[in-house]
Amino acid sequence: MGWAGVALVGLAAFALAAFALRLPREGWAVFGAILLFGMAGYAWQGSPTQAASPKPQTLGARESGDEMVEARRAFFDPVRPKPDYLMLSDGYARRGRFDEAAKALRGGLNRNPRHLEGWLALAMSLVGHSDGNVTPASSYAYSQARQIDPANPAADLFLGFSYAQSGQIRAARAVWGGLLERAPQDAPWRDDLAARVERLDQMIANAPMLQ
After folding, report:
1. Whole-number Cα distances in Å, 62 to 7, 16, 46, 52
2. d(CA 109, CA 134)
3. For residues 136 and 56, what is the distance between their CA atoms, to the nearest angstrom?
4. pTM of the model
5. Can you list the domains of the chain with their CATH numbers?
6. Is 154 a residue whose pLDDT tops 50?
């Protein structure tokens, strides 16, 4: 399915909800935003111009891998040397080879189990490998990162994003809402997080059928 097909599916879903299921007019804008949110997540993780099987390496996968690595690194000191296994994993992730990225990290974390960035990278690689879905393995990796440094918001920020992009809006709201309650008043990321939580609240209020 190409990008035109993705757009047609989105329009069909909107028409079904608005006319066949009689979604109230006041909920149209929010439902449309939800569809755009999901399509943006698919653009970040998916490659709609490629065949479903087998899964070749694509430009889209490389782009999503680059974004994933750079987003994670923004939460850590860029000057501090990174272990070889993390550098190897990032190289795989940048090429969309998330399974190999995860394997490299598992080996390194066996030797260095208190490496916060390593656990976070593992969680994000596992989500990438599962096409944007949160699995028990990725949830465990996020929880390990959180336990190592509860003051670092990265684990819950990215876990919430992973839930949201896979359509689990209520799960994303629970994670981000809990993080917002714990966030220091002067945290530089607090205002952005509060805005995200407010948008999710609006989605849930206007579309109670959301997961």
Report:
1. 22, 34, 11, 17
2. 20
3. 26
4. 0.71
5. 59-206 (1.25.40.10)
6. yes
